[in-house]
Task: structure prediction
Amino acid sequence: MLTPSLWVPRPSPVTLSLPRLCRGGSPKYYITETYALHHHETPTGLRFLLLTSPDFGGADISRDLRDLYADAYVPYVVKNPLSVRGEVIRVPAFLGRLDSYVRNLSCF
Result:
Protein backbone atom coordinates (compact mmCIF):
# COMPACT_ATOMS: atom_id res chain seq x y z
CA MET A 1 0.00 0.00 0.00
CA LEU A 2 1.29 3.43 -0.90
CA THR A 3 1.22 6.03 1.83
CA PRO A 4 1.05 9.70 0.96
CA SER A 5 4.06 11.71 1.95
CA LEU A 6 5.23 15.27 1.58
CA TRP A 7 8.84 15.91 0.67
CA VAL A 8 10.05 19.32 1.73
CA PRO A 9 13.27 20.60 0.13
CA ARG A 10 15.93 21.95 2.46
CA PRO A 11 16.44 24.44 4.17
CA SER A 12 14.00 23.85 6.99
CA PRO A 13 11.89 25.02 8.72
CA VAL A 14 9.27 25.72 6.08
CA THR A 15 6.75 28.48 6.58
CA LEU A 16 3.33 27.74 5.09
CA SER A 17 0.83 30.42 4.25
CA LEU A 18 -2.69 30.12 5.51
CA PRO A 19 -4.57 27.76 3.21
CA ARG A 20 -6.93 29.25 0.67
CA LEU A 21 -10.35 27.81 1.45
CA CYS A 22 -13.05 26.77 -0.97
CA ARG A 23 -16.79 26.56 -0.26
CA GLY A 24 -16.57 23.15 1.42
CA GLY A 25 -13.86 24.37 3.77
CA SER A 26 -11.10 22.13 2.42
CA PRO A 27 -7.82 23.77 1.39
CA LYS A 28 -7.23 24.52 -2.28
CA TYR A 29 -3.52 25.20 -1.90
CA TYR A 30 -0.69 26.04 0.49
CA ILE A 31 2.15 28.41 -0.41
CA THR A 32 5.73 28.31 0.86
CA GLU A 33 8.66 30.48 -0.19
CA THR A 34 9.75 27.90 -2.78
CA TYR A 35 6.58 26.16 -4.01
CA ALA A 36 2.78 25.96 -3.85
CA LEU A 37 1.05 22.68 -2.99
CA HIS A 38 -2.35 22.16 -4.67
CA HIS A 39 -4.73 19.53 -3.35
CA HIS A 40 -7.85 17.63 -4.37
CA GLU A 41 -9.32 14.76 -2.35
CA THR A 42 -11.97 12.45 -3.77
CA PRO A 43 -14.92 11.19 -1.68
CA THR A 44 -13.11 7.83 -1.38
CA GLY A 45 -10.04 9.48 0.18
CA LEU A 46 -7.77 9.42 -2.88
CA ARG A 47 -5.59 12.53 -2.95
CA PHE A 48 -4.21 14.34 -5.96
CA LEU A 49 -1.32 16.72 -5.19
CA LEU A 50 0.48 19.07 -7.54
CA LEU A 51 3.51 21.26 -6.79
CA THR A 52 3.92 24.54 -8.67
CA SER A 53 5.98 27.66 -8.24
CA PRO A 54 4.66 30.01 -5.53
CA ASP A 55 3.91 32.69 -8.14
CA PHE A 56 1.32 30.56 -9.99
CA GLY A 57 -1.02 33.54 -10.12
CA GLY A 58 -3.73 32.25 -7.79
CA ALA A 59 -5.32 30.07 -10.48
CA ASP A 60 -7.82 27.54 -9.15
CA ILE A 61 -6.04 24.31 -10.03
CA SER A 62 -8.34 22.23 -7.80
CA ARG A 63 -10.88 22.10 -10.65
CA ASP A 64 -8.15 20.83 -12.99
CA LEU A 65 -7.21 18.13 -10.47
CA ARG A 66 -10.87 17.16 -10.17
CA ASP A 67 -11.09 16.94 -13.97
CA LEU A 68 -7.92 14.84 -14.06
CA TYR A 69 -9.55 12.41 -11.64
CA ALA A 70 -12.82 12.21 -13.60
CA ASP A 71 -11.43 12.28 -17.15
CA ALA A 72 -8.21 10.27 -16.78
CA TYR A 73 -7.91 8.36 -13.50
CA VAL A 74 -11.39 6.81 -13.47
CA PRO A 75 -11.52 5.62 -17.10
CA TYR A 76 -7.87 4.53 -17.43
CA VAL A 77 -7.05 3.24 -13.93
CA VAL A 78 -10.24 2.50 -11.97
CA LYS A 79 -12.03 0.83 -14.88
CA ASN A 80 -8.90 -1.00 -16.04
CA PRO A 81 -9.11 -4.66 -14.92
CA LEU A 82 -5.30 -5.02 -15.19
CA SER A 83 -4.59 -2.09 -12.87
CA VAL A 84 -3.79 -3.18 -9.30
CA ARG A 85 -4.77 -0.77 -6.54
CA GLY A 86 -1.84 0.29 -4.36
CA GLU A 87 0.82 -0.33 -7.01
CA VAL A 88 2.62 2.19 -9.17
CA ILE A 89 0.39 3.24 -12.07
CA ARG A 90 1.99 2.09 -15.31
CA VAL A 91 -0.98 2.49 -17.65
CA PRO A 92 0.37 4.27 -20.76
CA ALA A 93 -3.00 5.84 -21.63
CA PHE A 94 -3.29 7.38 -18.15
CA LEU A 95 0.32 8.57 -18.11
CA GLY A 96 -0.14 10.21 -21.52
CA ARG A 97 -3.33 11.92 -20.39
CA LEU A 98 -1.64 13.05 -17.16
CA ASP A 99 1.25 14.57 -19.13
CA SER A 100 -1.19 16.36 -21.43
CA TYR A 101 -3.22 17.74 -18.49
CA VAL A 102 -0.16 19.08 -16.70
CA ARG A 103 1.30 20.67 -19.84
CA ASN A 104 -1.99 22.45 -20.54
CA LEU A 105 -2.52 23.89 -17.05
CA SER A 106 -2.74 27.67 -16.90
CA CYS A 107 0.08 27.86 -14.32
CA PHE A 108 2.65 26.12 -16.57
Remarks:
- Residues 20-103 form a domain with the Beta-Lactamase fold (CATH 3.30.450.70).
- Strands lie at 20-21, 27-31, 36-41, 47-52.
- The chain is about 25% helix and 20% strand.
